[in-house]
Design a protein that fits this description.
Elements lengths: L2 H16 L3 H38 L2 H6 L1 H27 L11 H13 L2 H10 L10 H32 L5 H24 L1
Helix pairs in contact: 1-7, 2-5, 2-6, 2-7, 2-8, 4-8
Protein name: LysE family translocator
Main location: membrane
Keywords: Amino-acid transport, Cell membrane, Membrane, Transmembrane, Transmembrane helix, Transport
Length: 203
């Protein structure tokens, strides 16, 4: 695969990656409420979701989803429900006043939520089945080209999402811990996830 094709593919998917959606808003909310560690854990979970999409695409299993409106819509609305659930939980927590304490959320919990947010996001399937095929040359190995393009997409996600997570984490680090600050940050984070759910539902 030539460099020109890779550059053109990158130029195509990077704007899509940068478009605010469930992935970016989840990472942002984690960075804002939990700092840089939570942001990178969320980033890892998001990336694992896209790696799973890449594996399914390579195996051809996701083709069934791409050609079945019913399965695709099912995944979409499960994703909407899950992101909405996360938003409601955070908003309810923000509305409750309680004695302030720093809660350490387990790594598995953050990564697990991020993975589901990414895996249930149809954007990944759209990249693999609507955009990626346009950059594959039938005269070369389709599997190898698919893996190279998938790696390019995932690497771009790591860099962009990592930068966004660190920006929001820096806002968290400048805050003085208090119950009022917790409620504000959780309220903002919950609002961000609410917009993510609405955007996913209307896409």
């Amino acid at each position: 695969m030539d460099l020109q094709t890779l550059l053109l593919f990158s130029a195509t998917v990077i704007p899509l990656i940068c478009t605010p959606g469930p992935d970016i808003l989840f990472i942002s909310s984690q960075g804002l409420s939990g700092g840089i560690s939570a942001a990178w854990k969320a980033n890892l979970g998001i990336i694992l979701g896209y790696v799973t999409h890449a594996i399914l695409a390579a195996l051809g299993l996701a083709a069934i989803v791409a050609t079945s409106p019913i399965i695709f819509q099912t995944i979409k609305w499960v994703g909407v429900a899950y992101v909405a659930y996360l938003a409601v939980r955070m908003l309810l927590s923000a509305m409750k006043s309680r004695k302030f304490q720093i809660n350490v959320v387990s790594t598995q919990a953050v990564i697990g939520k991020a993975f589901l947010t990414s895996f249930l996001n149809p954007k990944g399937l759209l990249v693999y089945f609507a955009i990626l095929p346009n950059f594959i040359h039938v005269s070369e190995s389709v599997a190898i080209q698919s893996l190279i393009l998938s790696a390019t997409f995932i690497t771009s996600c790591i860099i962009i999402y990592g930068a966004i997570g660190m920006i929001f984490a820096s806002m968290h680090n400048r805050q003085q811990y208090s119950d009022k600050k917790r409620r504000i940050t959780e309220g903002v984070a919950g609002g961000m996830l609410t917009f993510a759910a609405i955007g996913l539902a209307s896409s």
